[in-house]
Amino acid sequence: MPHRHRPNPATASIYAYTGPIAGAVENRRAHGGVRFVDRCNCGATRATNSNGGALERGPWREPDSTQVRS
User: Fold this and answer.
1) Which residues is 15 bridged to in the sheet?
2) Please, which contacts does 37-45 make with residues 24 or more away whose CB atoms are closer than 8 Å?
3) Which DSSP string corresponds to 12-61?
4) pLDDT of amino acid 67
5) What was the pLDDT predicted at 66?
6) Are 43 and 60 a contacting pair, CB within 8 Å?
7) pTM beyond cutoff 0.85
8) Order of strands across the sheet with 45-51?
9) Considering just the CA atoms, what is the radius of gyration of the chain in Å?
10) What pLDDT, on a 0 to 100 scale, did the predictor assign at position 35?
11) I need a labelling partner for 19 at 20 to 30 A (CA). Which of 11, 31, 35, 38 fits?
């Protein structure tokens, strides 16, 4: 069975909005607020723009070889 990514709330980060998320379906209402970055225990990340309840959620991105945990 393939691995299903699950966000780990203890490792999530919040940043200021920096632009649309590559690979996401654009939702202009979600622009201008904050960007949440969820992390899975395997190291994959997923960015979400949020503004007043509107969301723009990107795909899970696998870690590159320099970010893989041992």
Assistant:
1) 35
2) 37/12, 37/13, 38/7, 38/8, 38/12, 39/7, 39/8, 39/11, 39/12, 39/13, 40/5, 40/6, 40/7, 40/8, 41/6, 41/8, 42/3, 42/5, 42/69, 43/67, 43/68, 43/69, 44/5
3) -EEEE--SPPTTSPP-GGGTTSEEEEEE-TTS-EEEEEEETTEEEE---B
4) 53
5) 65
6) no
7) no
8) 13-16, 34-39, 45-51, 54-57
9) 13
10) 97
11) 11
CA atoms of 6 and 60, how far apart (whole Å): 10
- What pLDDT, in 10s, does the model give residues 11-51? 899 999 999 999 999 999 999 999 999 999 998 999 999 99
User: Residue 4 has what pLDDT?
Assistant: 87
Amino acid at 54: A
| Cα Dmax for the chain | 39
